[in-house]
Amino acid sequence: MKRTALLWIVAAGTALPVAILVTVGLLLFGDQHAGAVQRQLMQASYSSVSAVENKISGDLDLLETLALDAGTSSTDLSALYRKAKLVEARRPDWLGVVLTDQRGQMLNTTLAFGAALPPLIDARGVETVLRTGRPHVSGVLRSAATMNEPVVVLRVPIAIDGMISHTLAVLTRAWSFAELLRQQGLTPEGSILLADQDHRLIARTGATDPQEGAIGSPVPQSVVQGMEHAGDGFFYATTVDGTPMMGVGARVAATGWTVLTGIPSAALVWQARWSLALAVLGGLAVLGTALAVTAVMLRARQRRIAAERERLGLKADRQAERRLADIAANFPGIIYRRELRPDGRMAYTYLSPNRDLVEAAGRPPPTLNDWQPLDRVVETLPREVRLEWLAALRRSAETLTPFVFESSITDVHGHARWVRSTAGVHQRGDGTVVWDGVFLDVTHIKRTESALAAAMRDVERANSAKSRLLAAASHDLRQPFQAMSLFSALLLAHLPDDGPRRIAERLDEAVRTALELLNALLDLSTVESGTITPVVGPVAVADLLERLRREYEPLATAKGLTLRVVPCGTGVLSDRALLERMLRNLLVNALHFTERGRILVGCRRRGPDLAIEVWDTGRGIPDDQHDAIFEDFHRVNGPEPVRHRVRGLGLGLAIVRRLAQLLGHRIGVQSRPGRGSCFRIVAARVEVPQRAIPAPAVDRPARVQRILVVEEDEAQRTGLRLTLEAWGHVVWAAADADGALALARRSGERPTLIVSNHRLPGDRSGADLIRQIRRELDEDIPCILVTGDEDAAQLATARAVGCRLLQTPFRPEDLADAVSSPGHRVA
Of 614, 715, 712, 611, which Cα lies nearest the Cα of 666? Predict the structure, then answer.
């Protein structure tokens, strides 16, 4: 018996490797063949998708080029007809070009020019393009207008004066897609189908007739269901003629179409059958051999494994105990287990050996398994601490929530120490509540927290001092610069000689540059200090853009640039002053870096938002600097523009970024080096009532006025008086509110305009003075309030008076504009 068993074992051991090798080899061959077929199908599917996308993309590019001509010559249909016929002659797959307005067809090159036009075959596409302003690709269509030949309609919008008013479409033969599919190198037994978004057949590799009746018919439902279930994987389905097939589907992302690549299942059945049969036979051989061998060796192996497990388990337990003991001995605190029985008695069933913390407090350490009433466990603690500890413990036991206790104690040396105890809690089946936790000395943490709190108080005091300094600097530093600007302009006006005038022009340029740098630094510091509180409300974008156009169009013209502002018929939710500052910085940036060409400002609707964009044809920005340009003091590498002798600090875009964060707006940039840039601000869109935009201001107001000027700073008061008198006005100047009231009360002519600084000596502001003069003279005298403050509350107070705000430092042309259209009392 023993010899027979041994022979069977040897025979099984010899046959087993042979059977395994044969089985694995055949299975690998079958799998390799099936895998090769699947890879070919997948490759053909992806290459078909790429070919279809490339064709559609090329047709849309050519159609958009034709649409540009159509937008400029939409009234000359004969010229458009000739251009479209020339394009068709080079594209045999185009059946015709169709121009459509919002009411119907205007031109169709499938018919003779002037012939009666048939109904639209893609009305939904026209509606989609007019609504969205984006290109649209239809599914497969048939119509008498296409001589019943299946076509696909590609349609693009035509914008005239910024409005989508027409669409231009091309009728592409569906047959051209069949030719593309046949070029993808699939085996003869395979086939490729192209279906539109409604699962209708557009083209297939087996088609032989451009007007095949199957084109436009639905794809078999089993194919659609298999593709939707498998996603991008393989599926099995049945064709129209009942042939089983294996296929794979791929989406054409640009159109929503589907490319289906398949092969009859019969081409793979034989490999599957052979592989299955051999796998069964090999499996039976392996199973029989394994049973024979396993039956002999199993019992002995089980005995060895059980013994080894027992040995390893004991070793692991000892190692775990040693590790836990080491952790407990070196832990900077006490690890404990505390148990509370249902009868109210409690004991510590585990305490780590580190008891220095308890002994330092002058308390005897608890005794293990010393069950005693709850109150006696903590009777050595001070009464207040004991009451807090007992309350926290009872609350944790009643709610089974983690125990957390923190208190201050006095150690044996008389020093105050903070201790904290935290523990997880659970309840056993007999009702005993168990806490596993730690007891820590957190004195150093409390000291650190106290130091941090003191440091935070110091930071708050420093921020408060910084805010006060900025408020003073924003007003006081701008005063002398404002006076220099006015005197520089007056000097230019009184120097007819070329030599001295050139020197004065350089002086004026230097003053303006210094003003820009000072404004940038103060604006950045003000935003950083957090003293700006936005006043958010509906803002009419058209008013802002028109104001900026009037201000910067002369500068652009002087530089040889064209500044164009596209009207915007809606508004945004923002702070008007801060949004104007952001747009002003973007416009200045565009003027600075554009040497030739034009600057375009306009807006686009983006869902619930509105994007305000500033385009230029400047030198552009490298891709790797799109984020860096919004950092402080960053300047794009490269030569400075020739016309700008003084380089900026690189703060304009940094201020835009910070104000956008403050207002919750989004900013973006796109640029092509050598071609230009586009900066945009995206804010929530709101509808605002449209109103007439006031006429532009002139440099020298036409009507002579009697102007009362109130300004504490002597240099600025003199500069204002001389500038206004140079324009032909009668000017009365006062240094404070009392002097201004005396001038206003005197008999004779009354002032027709008040120009006052918001900050005046004494307890009255410029707004208070204007209210008092209006009240005493019983007349709504127009007013201009000059201020260098950034505080939102003061600016709101100034606006409440109804005055025109003039932010210092300002230019003489800004003063002329304000004098021409000052503010009146708010109703």
Answer: 611
Q: In this structure, what token pair is assigned to residue 547? A: 């104001």
Phi–psi pair at 722, nearest 5 degrees: -65, -40
Instruction: Say how far apart CA 431 and CA 251 lie, in whole Å.
Output: 63
pLDDT at 22 over 60: no
Please say whether the beta carbons of 431 and 413 come within 8 A. no
CB count in 10 Å sphere of residue 409: 19
| Residue 319 predicted with pLDDT over 70 | yes
What is residue 749's DSSP assignment?
A: P
Contacts of the segment 409-412: beta carbons below 8 A, 24+ positions apart:
409/361, 409/381, 409/382, 409/385, 410/361, 411/360, 411/361, 411/362, 412/360, 412/361, 412/362
How far is C-alpha 101 from the chain's CA centre?
Answer: 36
* Higher-scoring residue by pLDDT: 680, 250: 680
Q: Is 441 exposed, middle or buried (0-12, 13-18, 19+ CB in 10 A)?
A: buried
Three-state SS for 53-121 is HHHHHHHHHHHHHHHHHHHHCCCCHHHHHHHHHHHHHHCCCEEEEEEEECCCEEEECCCCCCCCCCCCC
Helix and strand numbers, DSSP H then E, in the chain: 20, 28
* Cis before 809 (ω within 30): yes
| Long-range contacts (CB closer than 8 Å, 24 or more residues apart) made by 725-732 | 726/490, 726/493, 727/700, 727/701, 727/816, 727/819, 728/700, 728/704, 729/701, 729/704, 729/705, 729/819, 730/704, 730/705, 730/706, 731/707, 732/706, 732/707, 732/708
Contacts 24+ apart (CB under 8 A), 239-248: 240/214, 246/41, 247/41, 247/223, 248/38, 248/41, 248/42, 248/45
285's tokens: 């051989």
Long-range contacts of 71-79 (CB under 8 A, 24+ apart): 71/158, 71/159, 71/160, 71/166, 74/99, 74/106, 74/158, 74/160, 74/166, 77/106, 77/107, 77/113, 78/113
Place of tokens 């040897």: 10
Q: What are the residues facing 257 on neighbouring strands?
A: 252
> Is the CB of residue 715 less than 8 Å from the CB of residue 483?
yes
- Measured in residues, the chain has a length of 827
- Structure-token pair, residue 654: 């940094």
Listed in sequence order, the residues at least 6 apart from 242 whose beta carbon sits closer than 8 Å to its beta carbon are none
Distance CA 809, CA 519 (A): 8
Closest CA to 759 of 797, 812, 732: 797
**Nearest one of 227, 179, 236, 235 to 206, comparing CA atoms:** 179
Task: Quick: pLDDT tens for 382-426.
Answer: 777 778 888 888 899 889 999 988 877 776 677 777 878 889 999
pLDDT classification of 644: cutoffs 50, 70, 90: very low
- Give the number of other Cβ atoms within 10 Å of residue 296's Cβ: 13
- How does strand 783-787 pair with strand 753-757? parallel
Residue matched to tokens 């100034």 = 798
Long-range residue pairs from 439-446, CB within 8 A, at least 24 positions apart, any chain? 439/333, 439/334, 439/336, 439/357, 439/358, 440/332, 440/333, 440/357, 441/332, 441/333, 441/357, 441/417, 442/406, 442/418, 443/416, 443/417, 443/418, 445/418, 446/418
